[in-house]
Structure formats: structure tokens, C-alpha cells
Design brief:
The protein has a domain of about 100 residues. Helix content is about 45%, strand content about 20%. A hairpin with a 5-residue loop joins β6 and β7. The mean pLDDT is about 95.
């Protein structure tokens, strides 16, 4: 199998250099490495070229989605590996993922320097809020089982190129954050499944460019929650959406980012009509059942790992008992 590696980058040259060293050490080598530069000013493109990568210059910070889409379109290979620039891969990461039988695969991603889960796969609620399964939990048997999934984090994932002919590419209006969840919903609605393969391990620094609760991060997540609802949640029950997104706003406020959350909701509302026009067709009852199934999985894993505050309050507010 031939693998094209796509790495979007915006500064943090030292992290990109570390990632490219781990890509070069793979037991299943990549046929092509493409670094898509979002206007770095610290020499990151020069470091990429020195490591043997081809660099595509976006000329500005166009966002994760636009950079990845361009890299996919301008690369070749039967498989496409999309990697965040702040990731490090175990030497057999690609080899382990190559055992996948579905349309895509992702592995167990730990936080750099710890035994804490950064992410495994994504699940989304009826509120338009998502959970990266296991995020913040200690690694353990709960996250050690290979399972079929609909939504891989694009932190360090492998895709069959043919998948994009069936689903399209990342939604560029999202720029960054939840663009992978939106893509996963399209896969779910078309019943295009992949796999979580925990034997493949990577380490992720996480939000290295801005930080998890940086106002721009919160603003984009808040906006994209609204755009996700606009595109996919036509004729859905309103209360879980309102409850879930207000609760997420309370979490943002607790982290000192309440104003950024409000700005994001305003931007999302301004883009709501355009996103609704690009909405995915389908029976809303089917989508409701799909989302309830994902909520049951969130509930099951949260119950086993220990509920965090957001999901405990959400399940109480949404009135769903599992």
C-alpha cells in the first residue's frame, strides 16, 4: 500500500521537526510527505524541506480544513495519512493501522509525556456537542479494544483515498475544530465505517498553536457547534440542542472564555442559513436514532471511567436515561 502523509502547519517548527523524525522512522514508510504551510513565520517550511517533505504554501492561515483539503487534492497514494504537526508516532503506527478493513483507521493517542488519553475516536450528541472518547482519562483496558467507528479524530488518522469521492472533503467554513466531527457525521449517514485500533499508539501535545481555552479556540468551537446543527440537525428536537450548548457555554465561562463563547454563537448564527443550504438530506428520525446510539456509548464509557461534569449535567438536562 502507498501512503501520502499530509501535515498542516502553522509555526512551532520544533514540533514539526519531531513529527517528521517519527514519520521517517516508520516500519511502513510513507511514499510521499506533504507539508501544507498556513503562513508560518518561524522557518517551519524550511525544516520540512530539509526533512525531505514537499511544501505547499497557503500564503495565509487558511485553517486546518482548507490546508488538509489542498494537501489531499495535490497528493497521490492509495491511502492518505493526516497528521497534526504536534504529534509523535510510535515506529509501527502506520503498520498497525494498515490492518484496518474499513474506510479509515485511527489509533490510541496519548498526551505527550503521560499515560493519559488524548483521544481515541469521536462521538457526537443530539446537542451538537462532541466527546473525544477517553479524553483526560488514564489509559487502561476500557480503551484497549479494537472497535468499528464512524468518526476518527484527524489528529493522526489514515484514510482510503476513495473515501473522499464518496463523502467529499472537510467543510472549509469550519476552519478548525469540529470539522472532523462534521466529516464523521457524513460518514455515519452513509454507513461508511472505519476502525479504532488501540495497538497503534501516538502522542499529542494538543492545542499547541493557541491552547485549549484560548479565546480563538473557544470562539471557533462555539461557532462550529452551531454550524454542525445547521448542516445536519434539521427538524431535530430543540431541547437537547439548547441544553447542551448552554451547558458548554457554562464550561467556557468557568475557564474565563464566556465572551469568546458568545462571539462564536453570534458568528454561527450569522452563518446558519448558508450552512443549512449545504445541509445533508435524509430522514431526521434515522439521524435521531444514530445520535441516541452515540449518546448511549458516551454514557456507557463515562459511567465506566467516571462522569465529567459536562456530561453528567447534559444527561440530566436532556432527559435521556440509559
Amino acid at each position: 500500500m502507498s501512503i501520502a502523509v499530509i501535515v498542516p502547519v502553522w509555526n512551532r517548527r520544533e514540533l514539526l521537526e519531531q513529527l517528521l523524525r517519527t514519520v521517517a522512522a516508520q516500519t511502513l514508510p510513507a511514499a510521499e510527505i506533504v507539508v501544507v504551510d498556513n503562513g508560518s513565520t518561524d522557518g517551519a517550511p524550511d525544516a520540512a524541506r530539509a526533512a525531505g517533505a514537499r511544501v505547499i504554501a497557503m500564503g495565509r492561515n487558511a485553517g486546518f480544513a482548507a490546508a488538509v483539503n489542498r494537501g489531499i487534492r495535490e497528493s497521490s497514494g492509495e491511502w492518505v495519512a493526516v497528521l497534526n504537526s504536534d504529534v509523535e508516532l510510535a515506529p509501527d503506527y502506520f503498520e498497525k493501522l494498515s490492518a484496518a478493513t474499513g474506510w479509515f483507521a485511527t489509533g490510541k493517542i496519548l498526551r505527550t509525556g503521560s499515560n493519559t488519553i488524548d483521544g481515541t475516536y469521536d462521538l457526537v450528541s443530539r446537542a451538537g456537542t462532541a466527546w473525544r472518547v477517553g479524553n483526560g482519562c488514564p489509559d487502561g483496558p476500557l480503551f484497549g479494544t479494537r472497535v468499528p467507528i464512524f468518526s476518527p479524530p484527524w489528529t493522526a488518522a489514515l484514510f482510503r483515498r476513495e473515501l473522499f469521492d464518496r463523502t467529499g472533503y472537510l467543510e472549509e467554513s469550519f476552519e478548525s475544530y469540529l470539522e472532523d466531527v462534521e466529516f464523521g457525521l457524513r460518514c455515519a449517514r452513509k454507513k461508511l465505517m472505519g476502525e479504532y485500533i488501540p495497538q497503534a499508539v501516538a502522542w499529542h501535545r494538543g492545542s499547541a498553536s493557541l491552547g485549549m481555552w484560548h479565546p480563538d479556540t473557544v470562539r471557533r468551537i462555539s461557532r462550529n457547534q452551531v454550524l454542525l446543527v445547521a448542516k445536519h440537525y434539521a427538524r431535530m428536537p430543540l431541547w437537547p440542542i439548547v441544553a447542551g450548548q448552554l451547558l458548554w457555554g457554562a464550561v467556557a465561562l468557568r475557564h474565563g472564555a464566556g465572551w469568546a463563547w458568545m462571539r462564536g454563537k453570534f458568528e454561527g448564527w450569522n452563518g446558519f442559513s448558508a450552512a443549512r443550504r449545504k445541509g445533508e438530506a435524509g430522514d431526521p428520525a434515522v439521524l435521531v436514532e444514530l445520535l441516541r446510539a452515540q449518546e448511549r456509548e458516551i454514557f456507557r464509557i463515562q459511567a465506566a471511567a467516571g462522569f465529567d461534569t459536562y456530561w453528567r449535567l447534559y444527561f440530566r438536562a436532556a432527559g435521556e436515561a440509559f
